[in-house]
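Bit of a strange request maybe. I'm writing a small parser for structure token strings and I need a real example to test against, not something I typed by hand. Could someone generate the tokens for this chain?
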Amino acid sequence: MTTRRALFQLHWFLGITAGFVLALMGVTGAAMAFEDEIMAALSPGVVTLALPVGAAAGEAADSRLSPDALVAAASYQRNGARVQDVTIERDPARAAAVHFMPEKGQRRGDRSYIDPRTGDLLGKATGAGVFRTIQDLHRWLALPGAGNGIGRQITGFSAIALIFFALSGLYLRWPRHPLDWRAWFVLDLRKTGRNLYRALHAVIGGWMLAFYLLSALTGLWWSYGWYREGVRYALTGKSAPAERRNEDAPTGPSLPIAPAWASFLRSEGARYDRVVVTLSTGDKPVTMRVLPQGARFDRMTDELRFDAVTGALVKTDRYADRSTGETIATNIYPIHTGAFFGLPGRIALFLTSLTMPLFTVTGLLLYLARRRNKRALAAVTPSGQAEDGTGVLVVHASQTGTAERLARLSAAAFPRATVRAMAAVSLADLRAAGTVLFVVATYGEGDAPDLARAFERSVMATPADLSGVDYAVLALGDREYADFCAFGHRVDAWLHAGGARRLFDLVELDGDDADGERHWQQQLHAIGADTQQPDWQPAAYAPWPLVERTLVNPGSPGAPVYRVVLAPPADADWAPGAIAEIQPRHDPARIDRVLAACDATDDAALRDALATAILPETGMFDPSALKPLPHRDYSVASIATSGVVELLVRQCPAADGGLGIGSGWLTKIAAIGDPIPVRVRANPGFAAPEDPATPLVLIGNGTGLAGLMAHLRDRARTGGGPAWLLYGERSADHDRPFADELGVLLGRGTLARIDRAFSRDAGCGRYVQHLLSENASAIVEWADRGAAFYVCGSLAGMASEVDAALRAILGDDRVETMIATSLYRRDIY
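Reply from user aminoacidic:
Good idea to test on real output. This should exercise your parser:
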């Protein structure tokens, strides 16, 4: 066996043993990187204190108790317990701290914060116990025996393994052209599968090599006494002083600090940030560890010793006067955490520690890939195959209802399945289910659907232990956007990072892609779904006659907009916010061009097949193999009791110079009386408030007025809270759809007010988002009254600008709360 082969075998063998420990140590080490800042932020009133009302910082500092008074107060509140040291902060907004003498056999006593002005003990910082557990995991895996148990030996061995990984990995990946920096540091993300795993493992390992060596070499300091003593001697030429056993600690009364403190203030008081005062007994001096102002990290301390009786300074050990070796030997912990190098060092060590699990995961994947090549796949039980009777949780994140529909279809394929919205799911639900199917849509430019943002913001923000969960993801998106299915990928990455097992690769769905739906269904069959379930097909359309078509903006500088009215059957029903799915048809002229280009026989059957299909470009084609055109969505402006389906349709140009397949069909090609294939589906993301008394703020532009009209008409029919319409169009003289009806609603009080903006008029030149800014105080007033905000219209421009305006007026946190409570809903396209 060659040296390289031997190193390789040892590299992967250690990787699947020590690698998991190192992953845990990396994550816990990252968690501790900003421990003090996190606990301070979580502990107002304990770590940080509010200054007295009206008091300046100097006045607050003058009102602080003396160190002796703080010690006395702390001891009194702990039934006479002795204080070992007291920490004084220069900043009057930060609490002081005291350490009590440890009990027999302990190395360190209890620590408590104390109010420097009142002497009241404040207790421990929030999260101190959590970070103590994280520290125990990091240092000895929280195993029995603490620092003297087997856990310390395991972490020590893993640190040695990390050194081996770094050096052997450097050797194993040595490139053919070592002087070409791109061979070392450039990551080619176009690679897939095993090649990608290898690239991630090797290239990112090269980025992190120096940091991991530093972490491992300093981490061994706490694992092995011989290592610590050897490094100390090599750096300083001295052995460590013997630690004083707690049993030998002085038992006499502590001497007053006042003389030493007064001397300290005279000599050092103007330039310290923090001072730790160790109390004196007998003839021992008072020791002070002083952190000067502007110190790079919190262990850059000077050590001063004062005579306890006279207060005279008897010994000074300045940090700046120490040799390089002494500086390193006394700062192993700051070097280990990166604090020694200031904030950039802490950030660097935080990030490199956080990426430690990457190498465990990629190394394991590479190992499994090799093993899979040696086994017959047919002999392996399909991963995650559900047994009969196993419960399945189907989670959906839907914007317009499509994802929820597919989630229900997915659940129907399993016995005892449960369907829930992502906003109503917790980590406990995922763990309890075991098998979870996620059907998640991507909204706009890579965003989560409105009602799923809270889940991503709170639950997905941090890694979670999902090691017992099997999952799959169906990601819905639109390829017209650059971040196609981005949210689905983020969900997938989060689950994978948490240890959940992917049942099969993420499936992407481009709109109403029947092929994508069939693929998802087939994947469900592989994990135990009902194979007798009918194939999923687009919902059956019903032929609803076109009964009316009216141009509503003659003379407008924009494209023509038509009011299109369809006659549904008498039993048709829908709620405000519903979407009409229309099966479009091509312009006959377009079909003529295709027939000519393909030299195909012109007959009625072929024309009918081509009318609703994606057209071939040139050459021979099989009519039966043509894929159907995707449907077009339109917001329904009418309510079910009207007996008609009313739409607003703007003519859109197509690339070939004609009209779009949807708008052209509805506004020009179809004749009055022609049947229009249509179905109306619910749109939960734009449904009316449950409480009709909820005020409505309706915001839209262009044909988005249709979706708002349904809510206004329903409110006029049923009564309820007032509504305010803010609407944007191009021209006041030509673009006023539903103007007469809106005037009636305003007169009746259904509409409390209407504000319009006309972007093309010389006297206006505004958009609907400008109306929000101009009426900011009224927006706040309506929000304070509990109004629900509904936005309908174009995604490009209007929706993002309106969203930004609302967040500027109401605040980001309040808007997010409104989304979570269904008080901010959007139907945009």
